[in-house]
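Annex B.
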Amino acid sequence: MSDEPRSDGGDAAVEAGGDPGPSAFEPLSVEAAADLIGEIVDNVERVIVGKRDAVEHILVATVARGHVLLEDVPGTGKTMLARSVATSVDASFRRVQFTPDLLPSDVTGVNVFNQKTQEFEFQAGPVFANVVLADEINRAPPKTQSALLEAMEERQVTVDGETRPLPEPFVVIATQNDVESGRTYELPMAEIDRFAKKLRLGYPEGDQEAEIIGRTAGHHPIEELEPVTDGHTLRRARETAGQVTLSEPVRSYIGRLAAHTRNNAQLGVSPRGSIALARTSQVRALLDGRDYVTPDDVQAEVRTVFAHRIRPRTGSETGEDVVASALSSVTVE
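MoxR-like ATPase: predicted structure tokens.
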């Protein structure tokens, strides 16, 4: 699989990253969308051992048009997980190693003067890919981190006053180094809020680690991984997810959970977070083969969607604690 960005097989508007119109993305059936997500998860598990829940969460965020923040120690398979997802959907993949001297233009791209044509030509940065791994994003200064903000929210990049759309589907999987904190920069809440989910992979169990060693002793399984779908079909699954019914009681439940965090923390969940929870709950319903969301879907998603957006009032409390309090206090009506 090339590291260069490529089209997902649509028409000219798709290749440019624009909206090709509703007729180009007819929704899949609920059953077909559920099968598709399951096939991608199964395929990724050929490379990633013992992390099915994490793989499912990443696929849920991807289908829900969201981005993912992975916080963990080095060497737990974060890069390989992102590559496996990109390969499984036949998508372009680029990795950006964030360092203290990384410039915004190193991420977004830059205009370069061509001596032959006597014109400036745009050289696209690594953000012009379907799946972008922003590795150790908290090692770069805030100015460089902010280069991702427009890309993540608007799915476009503006360089020298000209706006360019990014290819679709577009997903950022960022990793955050939680060791050597003295050499890192804290992510601003405005950036953290743009990640639909925050996950931890954790170390494998003993049997799982033995399986990993066995699979990688020789050729790595990523070298033989084949796509099970393409970007066009994934976008059809996104259309399906968008049509999953969110009843008024479920919407109200999400709103009351968000309100509880705002009333019981220094900084609670934003409306963007509530929207992310609604969208991921729709995809969670798809995984169960349903075309409607239940409170169980919301409860399955709320921890990974809400916790990282919360700033507790005391140092002894975490975002997870506030979410747990919301789940126990807010009743389902």
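Residues 271-287 form the longest helix (17 residues). The chain has two domains: 25-218+227-243, 244-333. Further annotation is deferred to the next reporting cycle.
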